[in-house]
Amino acid sequence: MKTTEYDISHPYVATVKSSERITPPDAEEVRHIVLNIPDATFSYVEGQSIGVLAPAPKDFGNENHFRLYSIANAREGENDDLAEIAIAVRRCFYIDEISGERYPGVASNFLCDRGPGDEIRIAGPYGRQFQAPRDNTCNILMIGVGTGIAPFRAFMKHIYGEKKEWKGQVRLFYGARTGMELLYMNDRKNDLANYYDQETFKAFEALSSRPHLDSEPDIEAAIQENSKEVWSLIQDPKTYIYVAGLSSLEKKLDAVISGMAGSEEAWQQKKQELIQSHRWSTLLYD
Questions:
Q1: Phi, psi at 26, each rounded to 5°
Q2: Potential cystine with 261: which of 12, 169, 266, 277 (Cβ 3.0-4.6 Å)?
C-alpha cells in the first residue's frame, strides 16, 4: 500500500485509551484498540478507515509505514464518546520469500504493543464507497472474514442504535478459522449478540474445516446452505451488498453465486448491475 495514494498532510495525534485482546491465547492475537482523538475536526461515518503512521524500520527508506484500518464503531463514537474510535488489529507476521525468515508486520505489531496513554499518529478518514444505506426499508447483506467484521460492527451499531428500528432484512455471513476467532462473536467479546433479538437480523457463522492447517473459513458453504434466501436478497432492488476481508473472498463469492445465477456470465451481468446502482461495495485487503 503506497502512502502517496492517500493524503497524510493533516495527521492527528491519537492516544490509546485501551487495548483488549479479543481472541484466546491459543488463537491468533487480535486486539480491540480504542483511540482517543480530541481534535473536533476529525469526523467520519460507518465504513470509513483511518491510516496509521507507524515508525518504519530504517531499511524501509521511509519515515512512516502506512496501514489502513477500518473504524469499528458508529459515527456516535465508541461508547457514545465522539472523541473515541475503535479498530480491530490482528498481530501479523510474514515470511521472506528469499530467506524464509519470519518477520513481524510493522504496523500491526506496533499497534498491538501500544498500551493506555501511548500516542499514535493517524490520518484520514478515507473511503466513502462503503456506507450503509440511509433508507431503513433497504436490505443489507454483509459478507466478511477476519478483521473484515470491523466495518460491519459499525454498521450494526448505527442501524440498530441511532436508527432504532431497521425495517429491511439484515444478514451477516462471517467466517473465521475457529469459533473463538469469530471476532465480536466469541466468549471474549460478543458485541453482536446485542442484535440477535432484532426481528430483521440473522447471523451465519462459517468456520474452517481444517483449522489446524490454517485453512481459510468455508464461507462459501454457509452461503450455499442459505442460497435460496441469499439469491432472493440479491435479486431484490432494495438490497445493498457489502464484502469485507481478504482479497481472495470476492473470487470465492463469484464462484458460489454463479451457481445460484445459473452461470458465471449471468452472475457477472447481475453483479455489474449492482455495481452501477451502487449496491455492491467491497473493502478488501491482502
A1: -90, 10
A2: 266
Q: Are 148 and 219 in contact (CB under 8 A)?
A: no
Q: Which three cell numbers stand for residue 260?
A: 445460484
**pTM for the full predicted model:** 0.89
63, three cell numbers: 519515515
Fold designation for 3-126: Elongation Factor Tu (Ef-tu); domain 3 (2.40.30)
Strand partners of residue 175: 145, 206
Question: Where in the chain are all domains bearing CATH 3.40.50.80?
Answer: 139-285
Interacting residues of 146 by C-beta distance below 8 A, sequence separation 6+: 90, 175, 176, 183, 245, 246
CATH topology of domain 139-285: Rossmann fold (3.40.50)
